[in-house]
């Protein structure tokens, strides 16, 4: 069900991004190219005994997401993926339409903590919402914490 939903959403977005323009939807197919050469994925001899059953896990090394070998493998996989995706002729149209859809100002519900009110706000295209504080609900909000300034890739969030 989930996979079907994701496929349906993806298909709808592609059609929506093209605004029903057959010329865009029938854009020139991607140029014929050689099959990508995927990085060799190392296999290790890791075997775990689960209640008397031996289970091989040759890719367990990939679970260590801070290991340099894993970072290198992920980079190689991402390079292959981006090379393929960059050839999609209507990709820019999809991106533009999604930004139009997602670009709207959002506010969280005010919460009172320690005699102050806190509210989150996102201008529409920020990776994370910014937290503001106010002495009263009628006061002008003052920036309290902007998690967008805590990392360059926008992955740090408040929780």
Explain how this protein is built:
The protein has 159 residues and is an alpha+beta fold. The protein has four helices and seven strands. The chain has helices at residues 2-17, 22-25, 68-85, 91-102, and strands at 47-50, 53-56, 106-107, 111-113, 116-122, 130-134, 142-145. Helix 1 packs across helix 4 (91-102). The longest helix is centred in the middle third of the chain and has 18 residues, at 68-85. It is flat. It starts with a helix and ends in a 14-residue tail after the last strand.
Q: Give the biggest sheet.
A: 5 strands, antiparallel
Task: Give me the Rg, rounded.
Answer: 23 Å
What value does the average pLDDT take? 83
Order of helices and strands: HHEEHHEEEEE
Q: What gross morphology would you assign?
A: flat
Task: Specify the helix fraction band.
Answer: 25-40%
Q: How many helices in DSSP terms?
A: 4
Overall number of strands: 7
Detail the poorly predicted runs. Answer: 1-8, 16-28
Distance between the termini: 30 Å
Structural category: alpha+beta
Fraction in beta strands: 15-25%
């Amino acid at each position: 069900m989930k996979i079907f939903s994701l496929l349906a959403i993806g298909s709808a977005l592609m059609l929506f991004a093209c605004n029903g323009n057959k010329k865009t939807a029938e854009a020139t197919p991607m140029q014929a190219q050689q099959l990508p050469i995927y990085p060799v994925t190392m296999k290790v001899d890791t075997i775990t005994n689960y209640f008397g059953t031996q289970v091989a896990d040759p890719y367990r090394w990939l679970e260590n997401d801070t290991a340099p070998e894993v970072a290198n493998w992920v980079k190689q996989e991402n390079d292959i993926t981006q090379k393929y995706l960059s050839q999609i002729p209507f990709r820019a149209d999809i991106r533009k339409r999604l930004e139009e859809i997602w670009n709207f100002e959002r506010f969280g519900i005010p919460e009172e903590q320690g005699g102050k009110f806190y509210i989150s706000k996102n201008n529409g295209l920020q990776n994370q919402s910014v937290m503001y504080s106010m002495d009263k609900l009628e006061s002008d909000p003052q920036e309290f914490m902007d998690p967008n300034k805590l990392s360059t890739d926008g992955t740090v969030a408040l929780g």
